[in-house]
Backbone:
């Protein structure tokens, strides 16, 4: 049943080889995967296994050495940088490990920022941002600067910022990497809830098997190769 | 991205680093001010020359002389040989009027006339010109006006003509006593056209040998009482080209001269070998007005081709202007060096800020800020530094200019003797140009930093340093 759906992300035979001096580092060594709309996927692996590299390829932040990355009908490997930026602006939300909020802007402005790149007028921008901050439970922290918020709160702002542009796919690279386990669980639950409610596709990188458990499907990656795909369909169906 | 969002972001980035922005702006301010003040000095110099020129006859008049009139001045014998020289006649006037861009041509008949009132006598350097030419000179009258049609012969006195009068019996005049002769120009004066017979009749003894018998019999020539039409404005200190001249309508002067010198030659007119006057009147020069000084060169060439000698008073203005241009270039160059240093300051500030904001720029790129927007953002930041520096620099320039003109003028006046002269002059175009230049310098200085920011990798946002 699942396989008959058209994938939103389709990766074929993807290689990324870094040259460091004389030696070659095969960060990705022939990756094939399909991700379907509305899925919450996790990429799990040990440090240096190539998780971040894969995610960066999917988000169009890096060019593959070989292979195909197709998001819908767009082939990222064929796009130039202008087109890639445009693709991110229109289809992608991104959640960073280090939160990466702009320190000079308050929570509201940070969330509204990606909308300004689309030319959305300020009033509408701020209204939308305020709505999302409420969704992530930060209605009272709208005018706080990043330095005036805890890590968990900052990452909630990060989640709101990723959602504000109404993206088709959200990428997250170790979104809870800088948080303690209790806060991590909170943020993960928030992300899971939002993804389900808003029917977003989400790809998350983590090295924590427990956190990966929040996902519908888990890709295990070792030395640049996907070695195992874990499905958790039953759990998803139960909840529905 | 919307334009105002871009600008707001750039400005807030500048505001975030107030001190650094302030210091960079300071550099641009000093650069702009030094350029503007330096150039304004040169412009003021140029302007005062132009004004002097304008007051002394204008830039659009050309005097036309017969060929060789300058050369033959020294050696009288040459006059015979240059029989073919074209003299300035009525035909010449018509000929000159045909030249394009010539708006007015008038004959100029220059004669010496003696004027007398009471004990005082004076030589007048009289210029007979057409009424139109007199009008075109835009004479500034203390009282009176240009002789009206049908008034008969009447004179316009230059403001310094009074200096030429002296006491006939003592021989003492303004130059000896420093006191102006007591001549009332509002009352009529007596004019003696035939000076030769006048002096002959006055001082028969002084004449030598052969002529003695004749001269003793000379009766004093007729004196004519004629009105003064007006006197030009200005005191003994103000010199203009017309200060020493006496002007009248040539149409009324000529008949008068013809009446006085019935069979003789009018003084100054050439004579045949037998001493008889020619039928035609030969003018001393032609007064030509042109519509634009840019054509002066061209018109002068045409006049030369016609066989006359043109003289453009403003010839030296051109060489002066060239000289001032080079002074301005040097002064402006000094200013430009400081603006160049300011440009390096801007580039440095921008590079620093990009270096610090590498991660932030990466975030913007990951979030989908287009490359051109990032470039524009940094260019706008650099231009804003240029603009603010330019505005503050201009205000400073106006302040310095004002101070120079108000306090420096006394000092400069003491040295140069020109009390009225402006030391610094900032025309509107200079202010505009300086501002545009400051912004341009900011943009150029910000160009490479902006390109660099544009090319930064978005991965900078993801790597954790
Ligand atoms: N820019 C680069 N130049 C050279 N080698 C690189 C570069 N980026 C990554 N690598 C190498 O590629 C491999 C995969 O790196 P990647 O960052 O994808 O690992 P990761 O799975 O995200 O690890 P972690 O869990 O520690 O973040 C590593 O061996 C790394 O050394
Ligand atoms: Mg990683």
Residues:
């Amino acid at each position: 049943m699942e396989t008959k759906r058209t994938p939103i992300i389709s990766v074929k035979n993807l290689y990324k080889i870094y040259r460091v001096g004389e030696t070659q580092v095969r960060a990705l060594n022939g990756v094939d995967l399909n991700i379907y709309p509305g899925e919450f996927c996790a990429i799990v692996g040990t440090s240096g296994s190539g998780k971040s590299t894969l995610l960066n390829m999917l988000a169009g932040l890096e060019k593959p050495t070989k292979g195909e990355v197709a998001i819908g009908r767009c082939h990222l490997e064929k796009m130039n940088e202008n087109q890639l930026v445009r693709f991110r602006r229109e289809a992608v939300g991104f959640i960073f490990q280090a939160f990466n909020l702009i320190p000079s802007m308050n929570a509201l402005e940070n969330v509204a920022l990606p909308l300004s790149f689309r030319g959305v007028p300020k009033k509408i921008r701020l209204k939308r941002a305020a709505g999302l901050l409420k969704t992530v439970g930060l209605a009272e922290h709208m005018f706080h600067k990043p330095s005036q918020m805890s890590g968990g709160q900052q990452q909630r702002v990060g989640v709101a910022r990723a959602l504000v542009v109404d993206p088709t796919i959200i990428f997250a690279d170790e979104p809870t990497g800088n948080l303690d386990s209790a806060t991590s669980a909170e943020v993960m639950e928030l992300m899971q809830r939002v993804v389900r409610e808003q029917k977003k596709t989400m790809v998350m990188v983590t090295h924590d098997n427990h956190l990966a458990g929040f996902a519908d499907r888990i890709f295990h990656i070792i030395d640049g190769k996907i070695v195992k795909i874990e499905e958790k369909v039953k759990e998803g169906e139960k909840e529905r | 991205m919307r334009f105002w969002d871009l600008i707001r972001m750039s400005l807030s980035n500048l505001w975030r680093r107030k001190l650094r922005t302030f210091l960079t702006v300071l550099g641009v301010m000093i650069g702009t001010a030094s350029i503007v003040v330096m150039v304004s000095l040169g412009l003021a110099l140029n302007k005062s020359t132009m004004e002097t020129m304008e007051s002394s006859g204008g830039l659009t008049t050309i005097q036309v002389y017969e060929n060789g009139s300058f050369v033959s001045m020294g050696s009288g014998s040459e006059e015979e040989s240059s029989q073919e020289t074209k003299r300035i006649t009525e035909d010449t006037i018509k000929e000159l009027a045909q030249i394009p861009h010539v708006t007015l041509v008038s004959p100029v008949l220059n004669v010496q006339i003696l004027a007398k009132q009471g004990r005082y006598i004076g030589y007048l350097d009289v210029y007979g010109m057409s009424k139109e030419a007199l009008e075109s000179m835009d004479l500034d009258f203390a009282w009176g006006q240009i002789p009206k049609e049908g008034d008969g012969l009447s004179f316009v006195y230059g403001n310094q003509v009074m200096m030429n009068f002296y006491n006939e019996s003592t021989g003492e005049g303004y130059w000896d006593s420093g006191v102006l002769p007591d001549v009332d120009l509002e009352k009529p004066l007596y004019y003696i056209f035939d000076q030769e017979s006048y002096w002959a009749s006055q001082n028969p003894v002084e004449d030598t040998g052969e002529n003695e018998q004749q001269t003793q019999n000379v009766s004093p020539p007729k004196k004519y009482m004629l009105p003064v039409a007006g006197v030009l404005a200005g005191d003994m200190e103000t010199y203009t080209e017309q200060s020493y001249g006496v002007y009248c309508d040539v149409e009324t002067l000529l008949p008068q001269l013809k009446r006085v010198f019935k069979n003789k030659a009018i003084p100054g007119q050439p004579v045949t070998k037998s001493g008889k006057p020619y039928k035609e009147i030969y003018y001393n020069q032609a007064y030509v007005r042109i519509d634009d000084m840019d054509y002066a060169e061209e018109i002068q060439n045409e006049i030369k081709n016609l066989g006359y000698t043109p003289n453009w008073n403003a010839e030296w203005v051109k060489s002066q202007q060239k000289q001032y241009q080079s002074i301005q270039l040097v002064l402006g160059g000094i200013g430009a060096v400081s603006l160049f240093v300011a440009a390096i300051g801007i580039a440095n500030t921008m590079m620093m800020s990009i270096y610090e904001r590498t991660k932030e720029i990466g975030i913007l790129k990951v979030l989908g800020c287009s490359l051109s927007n990032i470039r524009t953002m940094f260019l706008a930041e650099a231009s804003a530094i240029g603009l603010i520096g330019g505005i503050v620099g201009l205000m400073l320039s106006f302040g310095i200019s004002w101070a120079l003109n108000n306090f420096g003028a006394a000092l400069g006046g003491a040295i140069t003797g020109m009390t009225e002269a402006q030391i610094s002059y900032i025309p509107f175009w200079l202010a505009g140009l300086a501002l545009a230049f400051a912004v341009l310098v900011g943009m150029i200085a910000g160009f490479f930093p902006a390109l660099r920011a544009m090319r930064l990798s978005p991965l900078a946002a993801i790597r954790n340093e």
Observations:
- The pocket of magnesium ion (ligand 2) is lined by residues A 51-52 (CB under 6 Å).
- The interface with chain A takes residues 1-2, 5, 12-13, 16, 359-360, 363-371, 373, 458-459, 461-462, 464 of chain B (CB under 8 Å).
- The longest strand of chain B covers residues 102-117.
